[in-house]
Write a structure and sequence with these properties.
The chain has 148 residues and is an alpha/beta fold. The chain has one domain: Rossmann fold (3-Layer(aba) Sandwich). 31% of the residues lie in helices and 18% in strands. It has five helices and six strands, in the order βαβαββααββα. The strands form two sheets. The chain has a four-stranded parallel beta sheet with strand order 2-5-1-6. Strands 3-4 form a two-stranded antiparallel sheet. A hairpin with a 4-residue loop joins strand 3 and strand 4. The radius of gyration is 17 Å and the shape is globular. The N and C termini lie far apart (42 Å). The mean pLDDT is 84. It holds the Pfam family AAA_18. Keywords: ATP-binding, Kinase, Nucleotide-binding, Ribosome biogenesis, rRNA processing, Transferase. InterPro entries: Adenyl_kinase_AK6, P-loop_NTPase. One of its GO terms (cellular component) is cytoplasm. One of its GO terms (molecular function) is ATP hydrolysis activity.
């Protein structure tokens, strides 16, 4: 099944604004002619903790050693499987694209994920339509992290 909505990865160093930007994007994006918000923000770190997708807690770094296989298996059904082909491509399938457009926003397999995490190399390329890497000035970043 071709996904109906794009999957977006927002990544960057802790404190750059990933969660802020992800939630803003998910709460305000709506396709033309629609008042709904089809994007779903997923705070990957929270999913890892809540679902137990880690092998150990690293005391020195105050972080989890993530079991990437478990994480990917959990999220894959939500990704919409594959991106639609560009209309000018020889692989473009109009019927497949029209089926994707008919998917309900409640359909778990429709795509439309905003994946908020500190890294992007874990995601299979076929899942991702756009990667946004956030950066900020080191002095601003330091101030933000000190407040945490």
């Amino acid at each position: 099944m071709v996904r109906s909505f794009p999957n977006i990865v927002i990544t960057g160093t802790p404190g750059t604004g990933k969660s802020t930007h992800s939630s803003l994007l998910a709460s305000t994006y709506s396709p033309s002619g629609s008042s709904s918000h089809p994007l779903r923000q997923i705070d990957v770190g929270a999913v890892v903790k809540a679902e137990g997708f880690y092998t150990e807690f690293l005391e020195e770094w105050q972080s989890y050693e993530v079991n990437e296989d478990q994480l990917l298996d959990h999220l894959e059904p939500l990704t919409g499987t594959k991106a639609p082909e560009p209309t000018e491509s020889e692989d473009y399938d109009e019927m497949e694209t029209n089926q994707a457009k008919q998917q309900s926003e409640e359909d778990e397999e429709r795509g439309g994920l905003v994946l908020d995490w500190h890294t992007c190399e874990v995601w299979p390329e076929r899942w991702v339509d756009l990667v946004v890497v956030l950066r900020c000035d080191h002095t601003v970043l330091w101030d933000r992290l000190e407040k945490r």
